Amino acid sequence: MIRWTIAALLAAQLPIAAALATNPAQPSFAPPPRADMPKGPFGDAVKLGENIFRHTTVYAHGVIGDALNCSNCHLDAGRLAGSAPMWAAYTGYPAYRKKNRKVNNFGMRLQGCFRFSENGRVPALDSKTIIALEAYSFWLAKNAPTGAHLAGRGYPRLAAPAESPDYARGRTVYRQDCSLCHGARGQGQYARGQTVFPPLWGTKSFNWGAGMGSVKNAAEFINANMPFGAVGTLSVQQAWDVAQYVDSHDRPQDPRFSGSVAATRKAFHDSKFSMYGRKVNGHLLGSNK
Question: In 10 A of CB 156, how many CB atoms?
Fold first, then answer.
């Protein structure tokens, strides 16, 4: 029943995501249908990559340190436009990343996801995990133009809020529109040991170095993709407010932590969109070890 419900809700997202991806200045693209997945040894790698992507807590158990699946942030197993689809990401690499100040190939970009978003260990570039995820993403991008910024890549840009994002307003939005799935304390929901709805803060969530730790990134994702099955019901202001609320809770430490919250903020979180190193309700965010 849970699987059927999620599938039905996801189907309701698709027309909206397609509309978000429409931009005449960017080439459009659609990944191949799952029924066309290749056979043989390469097909086995693609299938494994899809399984890791959909069920990371199972297929990458021991590598990740939280309770998130890749598909929690890249919906429909990395297929959905406007939800950082993997077919659009794959064709964008190699590329320079400001985050680590070097040119990254796609495997290195995946390693970053394991380090930050999955709060885990970094698999080697030649590991079965990285190779399978690369194979899956490569297949999703079959016939896509290399190096082009495809429509639907990343999360759609969001207009600035009319008012500064607000914790109290965000709490109200969270309680009304998010807590049913993600829990009153952001703890997520689980069934038979697997994640059904991801934790948004706390020890089982992404760490402070993850992209979702940016209020801007979180607001863009929420505006384009949430609430699940009811996209478009939140205003721009509400998306910003609830992103501020979610990112105003503690989570696992940034793995680049230098021993000082202030120094770590200065080095890696010197942005108005980061709550790391700020005090909320008397608590210094990032001070939990």
Answer: 20
Chain CA centroid to CA 51, Å: 17
Distance CA(133)–CA(45), nearest Å, equals 8
Longest CA–CA separation in the chain, Å? 57
Question: Quick one: pLDDT band at residue 288, thresholds 50, 70, 90?
Answer: confident
Where do we find the tokens 């930050």?
116
Helix residue ranges, H only, 116-210: 128-140, 167-177, 179-182
- Which tokens is 145 given? 């133009």
Which residues are CB-neighbours of 86 under 8 A, at least 6 positions away? 53, 74, 78, 79, 136, 137, 140, 141
Check whether 113 has a pLDDT greater than 50. Answer: yes
Contacts of 70 (CB under 8 A, 6+ apart): 52, 53, 54, 56, 78, 113, 118, 133
Identity of the residue numbered 31: P
Cα gap 122→127, rounded to integer Å: 10
Give the CA-trace dihedral at 30, 35, 40, 42, to 10 degrees: 20
Q: Which residues contact 61 (CB under 8 A, 6 or more apart)?
A: none
Percent of the chain whose predicted confidence (pLDDT) is above 90:
89
Q: Are 215 and 244 in contact (CB under 8 A)?
A: yes
Q: Is the separation of the CB atoms in 66 and 83 below 8 Å?
A: no
DSSP character at residue 186: S
User: What is the C-alpha to C-alpha distance for residues 231 and 155, in angstroms, rounded to an integer?
Assistant: 14
Q: Using one digit for the tens of pLDDT, what is the confidence trace for 250-270? A: 999 999 999 999 999 999 999
Distance CA 201, CA 67 (A): 11
Residue 12 one-letter amino acid = A
Crossing angle for the helix pair 40-54 and 128-140, to the nearest 10 degrees: 100
Q: How far apart are CA 133 and CA 4, in angstroms?
A: 26
